[in-house]
C-alpha cells in the first residue's frame, strides 16, 4: 500500500468501504498518469493486459455490479463475442474518456451505497456457472468484492507501468501530488 486510507468516522462502515474502493481506483488511475493512449494501450509483458484495458475493465465491472445490485441491466453487456473489448480501447475511446466514465461510475457507486437502507440488504447473483444457484449477496459483500477486484487489477497496473518506463507506485504518488499542488 502506498497511500493511506484515513480512519472512518466512528460507525461509518459505508465510508470505510468506499474509501478503500477509492484507494484502489487511485492506484489504477495513477498508473496511466502522464502516458499517451498508445503507451497506455501497449502490452509490455507476457500478459495481454494493458493499462488502458485495465481502466476500461474495472469501470465496466464496477458499473455492472452496481446495476446488478439495483436490479437494472448493465450499461454494457458482455458475452463471448465481445468480452475481449472490455480489456482494450476500441474506436473512439481514449484513456481520458474511460477515466471520465469511471469517475461517473464511482459517483454512482458512492450514491448507491450511501442510499441503501442496510449493508445487510441482498441481491441475486447472476445465473453463471461460477455462482451458486439462486445465490444472493449483501451490499457489504458487493463493496468487499469491488475492493478485491480493483486491488487485483491495481497490482497488475503497477507491474505494467513499471515494465513500460520504470515508474513505481511510490513515484507515481509523488507525481500525482505534484500535479495536485500545481508544482
Explain what this protein looks like in three dimensions.
The protein has 183 residues and is mainly alpha-helical. It has six helices and two strands; from the N terminus they run H-H-H-H-E-E-H-H. The chain has helices spanning 13-31, 37-41, 51-70, 95-115, 139-165, 169-181, and strands at residues 122-124, 136-138. Strands 1-2 form a two-stranded antiparallel sheet. Helix 1 (13-31) runs antiparallel to helix 4 and helix 1 packs parallel to helix 5. The longest helix has 27 residues, at 139-165. The model has no long low-confidence stretch (mean pLDDT 92).
Structural class of the helices, strands and pairings? Answer: mainly alpha
Quaternary organisation: single chain
Mean pLDDT: 92
String of helices and strands: HHHHEEHH
Overall helicity = 55-70%
**Unreliable sequence segments:** none
- Helix segment tally: 6
Shape: globular
DSSP, total strands: 2
User: What gap, in angstroms, lies between the N and C termini?
Assistant: 24 Å
> How much of the sequence is in beta strands?
under 5%
Lateral strand order in the biggest sheet: 1-2
Q: Rg from C-alpha positions?
A: 17 Å
Largest sheet: 2 strands, antiparallel
Short description:
The protein is mostly helical and 183 residues long. It contains 6 helices and 2 strands.
